[in-house]
Structure to design on (718 residues):
């Protein structure tokens, strides 16, 4: 028997290209620094990872944006680097500079020394946070789980930090591709475990963030990023209690490869703002749902400008099913929360006209 | 009567899609920090702009890569920010951080206070450098002149420095588009003067670098970047002494807009490495030449890997005219010069098979 899903199931229906009464909306990084109530919780803990590792606090900040805005989904508050951290690389955050690993992966020997983390043990705080949030949500809206893509995680693991030119990992890619393939295969296996644990704990949908796939050439993207995401999609359980768990693949800068991304086994493709929704729909909208794609910079503009941009994007997608409104990347810390509200309200008010009455 | 062009005219012929014996090759930032002889000259002057402002030194570093590698073009050594500098913004370079403007453009009033620089006066060192290089080249290879696109220059002028999220200029774009249009129109006019002066001084071809156009949404790219490049192309003299001066438009991250870029009035489109040459050729190769597009990161790999990648790119473009081999972005300071040589040599050795005997 099918267990009951969330009462507001617009997101899940849209991801499966089923009819909805209006376009569902959520925001990447909707739980974050632009919210004063988030900053208040963040100040209570010594560092960012403590926030991720404390299920009650992760739950609290996950729910904060839902109290302010009429959002159609919650997304687990966590970080994509939890998995490399559990592999023993020594994650820490340098204020103003972002993540750093104490022991980056630089050689084949470094790769061979890594292990596949057990999510029930080394990453237990993540499924625990999912369970806590799921309980607190009490079926109001779906909960999205997530992970970074193998390639994206590998960039941080090899570079040891954020990078602009990916010198070290591309050096490995071209000079020792076998070592990189071993690392990516281990990450893919680990992510199947990790995302599987999130599903089991109550995640209703998943997103894989391939933040840095767009820095690759086409053949390198296929071989070192997309193939490993496809492997995850192939091995991941895609149902819980008889309900489909839809998966969104988001490759920032992946506009050239939409057809291939859509064929990788996902339910929906996340789009950054460099591509028109209408164009993307014409290319792959018959196979997958589309999520996106407002430039987060628009949220710094006046509310009437934000509303116009929401209207333009809804018009670009056009009538019918299969659209989840979102930003094309995460909301930035300098956005006034009222501007986020203007976006969410505009989607709620302007989108019903693009949907027929739900049957 | 047509004045004689350069003896090696492969670049100019390829840009006009005429037959060549082999694919011409040059590298973005081929005169630069990866060369020890460049660093030696750079150390003789107090700052980077002095190098740009001293025609004899700019000429010397322009010619350096031609002494090492079998390149088919020289490119003027200069900086895209010379024009905003001449507008009085106070350009300086902070070591390790890049360019800064003392007086960034933040308001409509700031825009209105700017003037259109006279290239014969405030920028006289640039045409003077072109004349010097042209004389020293003595007709061996063509000399490429260049400028930044209006949008790209405006990003530095408004942000005051390099940016990751372009918060200020996108704020202006969405909240005060008229002010930004005034700035872009002034830049387009100034760039017509500036590029015109380079043609007059001896540039044989031009490239417009739209480094940051790819950070825009499609309608914003059209209205705030491409339209102003098209305006420049429309107003610029396109001939000197009866010879066509081909212009290359390069929008990094512009893969979604190739058809529109090709229709903007350029002779060639520069490509970053995110798009396949063969795909780009199928889309726009009947209208323009293509330049690119090896990932500069490949130059860190072993010479045999570099050679394989050159072979792959030549195969992707396929047989026939209209290809200029280049990187998809500038060469980085950490590349061993022998690796650049491996790329240039591979193009020379592997490309003739893709061209019929020149008639």
């Amino acid at each position: 028997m099918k267990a009951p899903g969330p009462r507001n199931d617009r997101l899940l229906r849209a991801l499966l290209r089923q009819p909805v009464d209006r376009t569902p909306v959520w925001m990447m990084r909707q739980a974050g620094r632009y919210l004063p109530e988030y900053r208040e919780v963040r100040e209570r803990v010594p560092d960012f990872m403590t926030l991720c590792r404390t299920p009650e606090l992760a739950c609290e900040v996950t729910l904060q944006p839902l109290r302010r805005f009429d959002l159609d989904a919650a997304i687990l508050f966590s970080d994509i680097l939890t998995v490399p951290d559990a592999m023993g690389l020594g994650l820490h955050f340098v204020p103003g500079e972002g993540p750093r690993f104490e022991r980056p992966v630089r050689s084949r020997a470094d790769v061979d020394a890594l292990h596949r983390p057990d999510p029930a043990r080394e990453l237990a705080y993540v499924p625990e946070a999912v369970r806590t949030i799921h309980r607190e949500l009490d079926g109001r809206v779906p909960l999205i789980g997530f992970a970074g893509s193998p390639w994206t995680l590998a960039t941080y693991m090899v570079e040891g930090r954020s990078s602009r030119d990916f010198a070290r990992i591309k050096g490995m890619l071209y000079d020792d591709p076998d070592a990189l393939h071993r690392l990516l295969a281990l990450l893919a296996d680990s992510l199947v475990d990790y995302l599987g644990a999130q599903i089991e704990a109550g995640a209703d949908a998943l997103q894989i963030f391939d933040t840095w796939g767009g820095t690759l050439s086409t053949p390198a993207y296929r071989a070192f990023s997309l193939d490993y995401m496809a492997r995850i999609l192939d091995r991941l359980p895609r149902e819980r209690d008889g309900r489909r768990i839809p998966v969104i693949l988001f490759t920032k800068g992946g506009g050239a490869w939409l057809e291939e991304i859509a064929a990788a086994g996902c339910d929906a493709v996340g789009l950054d703002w460099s591509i028109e929704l209408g164009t993307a729909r014409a290319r792959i909208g018959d196979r997958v749902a589309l999520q996106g794609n407002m430039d987060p910079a628009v949220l710094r503009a006046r509310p009437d400008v934000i509303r116009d941009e929401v209207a333009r994007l809804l018009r670009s997608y056009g009538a019918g099913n299969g659209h989840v409104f979102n930003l094309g990347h995460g909301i930035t810390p300098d956005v006034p929360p009222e501007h986020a509200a203007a976006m969410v309200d505009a989607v709620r008010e302007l989108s019903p006209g693009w949907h027929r009455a739900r049957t």
Remarks:
- The radius of gyration of chain B is 19 Å.
- Chain B has two domains: 1-30+238-359, 77-235.
- The domain at 77-235 of chain B is CATH 3.20.20.210 (TIM Barrel).
